[in-house]
Write the structure tokens for this entry.
Amino acid sequence: MKTELRNILADKSGAECALGCLEQNGITTLDLIEAASIPTDPDAWRATWLLNHSIGTDDSQLICHQAKLIEALPLANDSHQRELLRLLDTLSRYDEDIEGLLFEHCIKIWSDTLKIPSTRIRAFRLVMAFTEHYPELLKEIRPLTTEEYTADLSSGIRHSFSKLIAGKW
């Protein structure tokens, strides 16, 4: 990782200031994607957070590097996973060969009741998005909507969950 990027990520200023520093130092979206895809790096979460503040829906660079970000998911900590999922949620399509892998990772994240609820609900949102394209998945998902998986959710997250499953079965 470039020294300039590491210094910007270490500075805890807001997104607007950090994005300005990135531009001033010639740090590109590709540099941020590279940093975000290293789950063992303590600054990866912040790189992913900045990506979420700097790119739009279906960003072409993100589309090209989606496999790298999806592969980082199982090794990332909960907060980094949440930001990676937010980032991946900006894509309206995924490469066919890794779409199943993303779905599997999301199911594992949702099913892990020890994970922070904000990460779990973010994974469940993506799971439900897959059901729009593959409605047959609803049968597989339904057992994951029981009290066993929702008991520890806060009222706000439980409300989001209820909206996601409303009218699905």
Summary: The mean pLDDT is 94. The radius of gyration is 17 Å. Residues 1-93 form one domain. Residues 117-133 form the longest helix (17 residues).
